[in-house]
């Protein structure tokens, strides 16, 4: 039930308004004093204030200013008795939502209040939407069909159904933890409610604390107005606590209490506020190790780990690589209006073998970079950076050579291997000496000497 505060020095007007508003299902409060009005806004979570500008010692404008300091979200409609609109215009500049002239009709009040409250709820929804980054708009599509990822999809669908179950998502950096968190929210019955996120590693302790819990006006020196924290803002929805492993120990205690009691207080506040929020936490840290190192609370870990989802690194689900490449190639060539639409066999092999320490994020960034830099139809090995050529299991190939009973001539065998590798590298680079030297990790001079020795041809 929305709370509406009436501030007017005329008892008749107050009573009249109270009656109209109560009749429409709102909960009215009223007072004739500016100070009392400020107190009520501070204590009662008022949604809307109907404020007479013509208030005794405190001018209405003064009260308006202080109201907005206490709660920047509160809607104020000015009631003006003068017949002049000048001070009402002044009030609009100071953040009042609208004004109405005395004498007014009951229907006019009803309408203006209804519209104002609708605007406010829209504003809140918009604010929640804005928090979702551009990336998340298309976040429904997680690409891949490896058994490992299919298992993750199953878990997402399952936990989405359980509205308030706490989820802990683990996986290396860039594996898609944030995508999973958003998917859980979007597939849940809470999808129309806010999804908020915060990176617990990016803020110092006290800032993170006020971001999460909010504060009252005057809670500390810089608290000039009331601030609503994320737990309140995401009420009815989900809050995504990213990098939970980085959270300060003191804040961990506080979070644990919130998880246990399902209520909290704003900093400097006296009222317990109930929360109805699904908590989704994520980390790329081994929390078990952090617990051993006394950097993470074990009790909090068990509270969070109600429904664990682990996303394996990309190198443990290489089957997903071709589909991901295809997905990002289409996306970026469309975005940058390029022709690239295919990947050559050799380039695909290299990328499938690469160990992707930055996981899907690295793959995505790479495809983006290639699409920006080149405008060709087929992505070939020469478009790939050296780290993709230089790493992977191919390094271990020589160990597969066996020694026959009659023995080997070591120098000859090594020379054959060397020749074989050099010519393969030449093929990959299209005969480019500089690139060939780079992927073989030898100086250019050394490579030239070997080309000579083996009678191999190169360009440049
Ligand atoms: N399966 C997938 N399909 C499509 N895009 C993906 C997939 N997995 C990850 N991505 C993309 O890769 C990038 C990194 O993913 P995300 O931000 O979710 O990783 P993260 O696990 O949260 O990483 P970090 O621990 O570094 O925060 C994002 O742009 C995301 O859209
Ligand atoms: Mg992330």
Describe what you observe in this structure:
The protein is an alpha/beta fold and 460 residues long. The chain folds into 4 domains: 3-127, 3-Layer(aba) Sandwich (Rossmann fold); 134-312, Rossmann fold (3-Layer(aba) Sandwich), CATH 3.40.50.300; 320-397, Helicase, Ruva Protein, domain 3 (Orthogonal Bundle), CATH 1.10.8.60; 401-460, Arc Repressor Mutant, subunit A (Orthogonal Bundle), CATH 1.10.10.60. 48% of the residues lie in helices and 13% in strands. It is built from 20 helices and 16 strands. The strands form 5 sheets. Strands 2-1-3-4-5 form a 5-stranded parallel β-sheet, with helices on both faces. A hairpin with an 8-residue loop joins strand 11 and strand 12. The N and C termini lie far apart (79 Å). Mean pLDDT is 87; it is low at 133-139. The structure holds adenosine-5'-triphosphate and magnesium ion.
Brief account:
With 460 residues, this protein is an alpha/beta fold. It has 20 helices and 16 strands.
Question: What are the key terms here?
Answer:
single chain; 460 residues; alpha/beta; Rossmann fold; Helicase, Ruva Protein, domain 3; 4 domains; five-stranded parallel sheet; 48% helix; binds adenosine-5'-triphosphate; binds magnesium ion
């Amino acid at each position: 039930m929305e709370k509406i505060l009436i501030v007017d020095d005329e008892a008749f007007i107050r009573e009249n308004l109270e009656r109209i508003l109560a009749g429409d299902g709102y909960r009215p409060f009223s007072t004739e004093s500016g100070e009392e009005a400020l107190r009520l806004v501070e204590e009662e979570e008022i949604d809307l204030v109907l404020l007479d500008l013509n208030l005794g010692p405190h001018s209405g404008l003064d009260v308006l200013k202080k109201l907005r300091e206490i709660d920047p979200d509160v809607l104020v409609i000015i009631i003006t008795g003068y017949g002049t609109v000048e001070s009402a215009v002044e009030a609009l500049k100071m953040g009042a939502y609208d004004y109405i002239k005395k004498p007014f009709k009951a229907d006019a009040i009803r309408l203006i209040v209804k519209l104002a409250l609708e605007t406010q709820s829209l504003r809140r929804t918009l604010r929640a939407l804005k928090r979702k980054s551009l990336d998340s708009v298309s976040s429904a599509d997680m690409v891949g069909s490896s058994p490992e990822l299919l298992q993750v999809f199953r878990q997402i669908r399952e936990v989405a159904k359980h509205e308030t179950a706490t989820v802990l998502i683990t996986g290396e950096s860039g594996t898609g933890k944030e995508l999973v968190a958003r998917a859980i929210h979007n597939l849940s019955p809470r999808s129309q409610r806010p999804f908020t996120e915060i990176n617990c590693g990016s803020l110092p302790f006290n800032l993170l604390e006020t971001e999460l819990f909010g504060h009252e006006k005057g809670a500390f020196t810089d608290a000039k107005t009331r601030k609503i924290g994320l737990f309140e803002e995401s009420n009815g929805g989900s809050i995504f606590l990213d990098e939970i492993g980085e959270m300060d120990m003191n804040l961990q205690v506080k979070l644990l209490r919130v998880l246990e009691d399902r209520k909290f207080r704003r900093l400097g506040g006296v009222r317990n506020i109930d929360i109805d929020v699904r908590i989704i936490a994520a980390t790329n840290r081994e929390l078990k190790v952090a617990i051993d190192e006394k950097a993470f609370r074990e009790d909090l870990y068990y509270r969070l780990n109600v429904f664990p989802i682990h996303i394996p690194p990309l190198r443990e689900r290489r089957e997903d690589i071709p589909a991901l490449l295809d997905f990002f190639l289409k996306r970026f060539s469309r975005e940058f209006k390029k022709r690239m639409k295919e990947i050559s066999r050799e380039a695909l092999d290299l990328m499938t073998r690469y160990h992707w320490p930055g996981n899907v994020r690295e793959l995505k960034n790479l495809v983006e970079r290639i699409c920006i830099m080149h405008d060709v139809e087929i992505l070939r090995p020469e478009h790939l950076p050296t780290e993709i050529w230089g790493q992977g299991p191919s390094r271990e190939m020589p160990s597969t050579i066996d020694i026959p009973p009659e023995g080997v001539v070591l120098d000859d065998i090594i020379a054959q291997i060397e020749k074989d590798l050099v010519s393969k590298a030449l093929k990959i680079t299209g005969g480019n000496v500089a690139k060939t030297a780079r992927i073989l990790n030898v100086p250019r001079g050394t490579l030239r000497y070997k080309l000579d020795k083996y009678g191999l041809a190169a360009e440049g």
